[in-house]
Fold this sequence. Notes:
Blueprint: H1 3-18, H2 22-28, E1 41-47, H3 53-71, E2 73-79, H4 85-92, E3 97-100, H5 102-112, E4 115-121, E5 128-129, E6 131-136, E7 151-154, H6 160-172, H7 177-180, E8 183-186, H8 190-198, E9 204-208, H9 209-218, H10 220-225, E10 226-231, E11 235-236, E12 239-242, H11 248-259, H12 265-274, E13 278-281, H13 288-296
Parallel strand pairs: 1-2, 1-3, 7-8, 7-9
Antiparallel strand pairs: 3-12, 4-12, 4-13, 5-11, 6-9, 6-10
Amino acid sequence: xxxxxxxxxxxxxxxxxxxxxxxxxxxxxxxxxxxxxxxxxxxxxxxxxxxxxxxxxxxxxxxxxxxxxxxxxxxxxxxxxxxxxxxxxxxxxxxxxxxxxxxxxxxxxxxxxxxxxxxxxxxxxxxxxxxxxxxxxxxxxxxxxxxxxxxxxxxxxxxxxxxxxxxxxxxxxxxxxxxxxxxxxxxxxxxxxxxxxxxxxxxxxxxxxxxxxxxxxxxxxxxxxxxxxxxxxxxxxxxxxxxxxxxxxxxxxxxxxxxxxxxxxxxxxxxxxxxxxxxxxxxxxxxxxxxxxxxxxxxxxxxxxxxxx
Length: 309
């Protein structure tokens, strides 16, 4: 079954499993919340499809439960089929926030003025990632000249690592990748890109280093058989941002809860399971490298077509 069809069916299943919140069900039947423990708000937050959607939900759902319990806010995570959907769904589906990738955030900030608040810091002290262009070690591909006539797999046009990096790379060599390559396509997730290059479905791929490291820790073949040819500047790790007109007090409450999450026992355990050390404050100024990188690549964010060809 094609990956995009599989992803669509899985996303529908996740949506069905998540269902309505208890408060929503009570309202639908004309009932009022029975006690003060009922959430006073309901927020829908989008997640970008970095990996298998079930792995994504397994990672983020405890975070939603923690915030719901801490703040009395019903947090519902929604995994989107592709990166660009986050921007569209803010308007079409009424999303309140999302964990944005760096390029997706830059686009969303320019187009719909989202406000970024926090991002995770990992145990090694990093709160950034970089993009990688990868090939198989036995491919013989070492320079841009070797890429002529090859098959390149991207993640999505709205990603830093999965598209902006190779786009800028080819542009710096005065190359139009549409005609230079034999074929190019979008795999939808960083995980799919890694596996397609590893399994020789594509000759070259573009991904983020953090997903590469995560997958390599589980599959020894990845580090043994793949190598990096090029990397992007460091950019902020996926960060939580909210729509511009969301209640400022609610945004501040969520921001404070996440920034202090590592200070209580339950929060510290959950954030460790999430794979981070803590959340740190994040502002639009942290994305200056992304804005600069886009300008160097000749991309105008306000008019950029982030939908895959």
